[in-house]
Amino acid sequence: MDNGSGIRVMDFWNMEQVHCGTHSTSGLYRHDYIDYADVSCISFIYVFYGDTARSLKYTNPTTLKIEEWMSRAAEYTWNDIPQSTDNFIINTFYDYEFIWMNERNDTLYAGMYYAEDNDNYPQFVYSKGGVNFTDSCNISSVNQHLHECPGKVPPIIQTPQTSVLFTSRDNVTLVCSYLSYYPVLDVRWNFDSSENGVRMIITNDIDHTKYSGSSTQAPSLTIHAAELSDQGNYTCSMKNRYGWAEGSGIQINMLTDTSLCQCPCSQVKNGSSYTADELQVLLSSSLKKLEKELKVDKKLLSSYVSKHVSASDDRQSSRSLGIGGIVCLCLIAAAILGMDLMSIKRHTATAKGICLGRP
């Protein structure tokens, strides 16, 4: 890929499964073995500027995201160890993706410069070539490259939906994604109304109470509180530096009372209706069967079982109440028994007299 490809170096590195070009001194290249590298076995990463004498060495990287390890000071640079006060800056210093400067930021040692309005970027300060990748881990070879170097083409747009049904006041989300090897500069949705046939262009700066999305960060479109007037065909389109592309249309329609589910005609005999008495006769067998299936034995209900089961209660108040009841019952029984014992002598004498014939 040429140096003037118009793509940021860090975006190019962070692509997935892209094999682009071969090592040379005149352009960017990316080997897709980056995707298969095991960061746990990488001891160091070199960033070369022109030749091996001008290099930045980062030891023990914890990630393969280039911006994360280049935002810290390199342990080794150009046959020297950088000053602890040097600044390594990512994406915040004017149009530099990466810049290495001294403490006062008035001396520049190395950098990667990018400007969207110029075809000769990115540019590498003190660079004769691109960015190289070195590690001490044996990476298994890749049998084939999944993607070749991208051409100078507009974005490839993907819209998985073809039609959407909604009810009044629903929030409707129309999904749109894309594949683009170059920065996407603009996203918009074209709305062709079913009501009046008028086309409206929906962008990120339109009424946010009605629409959200339609941006380079979130290209999908959400229609808030959709109504009948929102029916129609929606098309997602976007552009990069090589032109506009348009996805497939998505037709959305609102469900009305007449479009709701109705009885199939096949279930209505000869297209005629029945009286209540006729329906009672026709459905009697089905109703009896249904009644039998739904009938429940009351004795199996939890409410019935609960009424006939004594549940344990370990509370102290319950124990005290139970003991009090037992004591009361025992006292009553003792009183009755005591009264019987007091009169037993008299009853015994009377019974004896009767037996002896004495009054």
Automatic annotation (TrEMBL):
CDD domains: Ig. Keywords: Membrane, Transmembrane, Transmembrane helix. Residues 154-256 form the Ig-like domain. It holds the Pfam family Ig_3. The chain crosses the membrane at residues 321-342. InterPro entries: Ig-like_dom, Ig-like_dom_sf, Ig-like_fold, Ig_sub. This is Ig-like domain-containing protein.
